[in-house]
Design a protein that fits this description.
The protein is mainly alpha-helical. The termini are far apart. A three-stranded antiparallel sheet has the order 2-1-3, covered by helices on one side. Helices cover 54% and strands 10% of the residues.
């Protein structure tokens, strides 16, 4: 694994590169936490949140595809029934 040095903003909790003089999220110019265990826990929490969001988006897309598939099947069924039925002048 690459040796990426990060620090955590003590105001908003965002990870920042060591070279940053201020937080890229909130603009904080105060103290930053550089403790390795804290940095690891923040990165792990961000990964878990990202995985949760990805799973939720995939689930929504699957639900949407299923809904459209069912709607398309109902429309086709209605259309075929309409085409087969004798037309009434009234």
């Amino acid at each position: 694994m690459r040796d990426v040095r990060l620090k955590i903003c003590e105001l908003c909790g965002a990870p920042n590169l060591m070279e940053n003089t201020e937080c890229h999220v909130c603009g904080w110019r105060g103290r930053f936490n550089t403790e390795p265990s804290t940095v690891r826990s923040v990165i792990e929490a961000a990964r878990k949140l990202q995985m949760h969001e990805t799973t939720r988006q995939d689930s929504c897309l699957r639900s949407l595809r299923l809904w459209f598939g069912e709607a398309w099947a109902r429309f086709q069924d209605w259309y075929h029934r309409r085409r087969r039925s004798p037309r009434s002048p009234f």
